[in-house]
Amino acid sequence: MKYMDHPNKKYHVLARGVVISSDYILVAHCIGMDNTFLPGGHVEFNEGLKDTLSREIGEELGLSCEVSGYLGTVEAEFEDVDTYHQEINHVFTVKIPDINHKRNPSSKEGHLEFYWIHIKDMEKHNLQPHPVRILIMNYLENKVQGSHFLSTFDDGSGV
Question: Nudix hydrolase domain: which residues (predicted)?
Fold first, then answer.
């Protein structure tokens, strides 16, 4: 079924975080699904991307973090049983104090679990949307980040 024929359509704007420890990356997994994704979530109205990511990590993991470099944007689409989804993922590097790949952090949300995967195993763990794998590898191999990220949320000037 083509997206235009779907009775339900949803559009998502998301902030996602790349948390790295040694050669491992932290991923989220929705229990019962066959894929993983980066921690983070939906941007709320009147909220900047960095604030969204910080809030989401607080809600999901109960941890504070520092959202730093902007890696880029990944646009994706997917279908579930009766809905076509289109999403924009803004991906940042994130530092979380006192967290490392030797211990999986506990989830504060019952439908999610978090665990570390080796960088080379992103495909094996079906990290989605799949173009985030390219962003991550470009960053790790070449320290390539997005060219610019500017926001009125950062300077307090509002709209």
Answer: 10-140
